[in-house]
Design a protein that fits this description.
With 117 residues, this protein is α+β, with helices and mostly antiparallel strands. The chain is 35% helix and 14% strand. The protein has five helices and four strands. The chain has a two-stranded parallel sheet.
Length: 117
């Protein structure tokens, strides 16, 4: 009896997801469609608007996350609903320890890795 060789069949397709340093969505979409006409694309343009940041988009439904749109900040409010007792204790400790003037978006934008892009 011959050994059977496993050959998986992949039915996945690549996608184009991520942040781009562009401020003009039309120019970016033209470039994407010129190069990748068949790929589904979900570009984010944080240089255009703070709300396009992945941090904002992924924080919107997190328990305790408060998105301060005018102040362009994301912070934690441990009194918000949605925490288990254990997580509430951790969230309150984090809220107390986190420097109030820090802004996650600014920290990420000023990181050495971000500047190299």
């Amino acid at each position: 009896m011959e050994p059977t060789t496993f050959r998986p069949i992949f039915a996945a397709a690549p996608t184009l997801v991520g942040s781009f340093p562009h401020a003009d969505p039309q120019r970016l979409m033209d470039r994407i469609f010129d190069r990748f006409a068949e790929l589904p694309a979900w570009p984010q343009l944080p240089a255009r608007d703070w709300l396009e940041s992945m941090y904002v988009q992924y924080s919107e439904r997190l328990p305790g996350a408060v998105i301060d749109r005018p102040g362009q900040r994301i912070h934690l409010r441990a009194s918000a609903k949605g925490f288990s007792p254990r997580n509430l204790k951790c969230a309150r400790a984090l809220e107390e320890a986190w420097p109030k003037e820090e802004n996650l978006q600014q920290l990420a934008a000023n990181s050495p890795r971000q500047r190299r892009l």
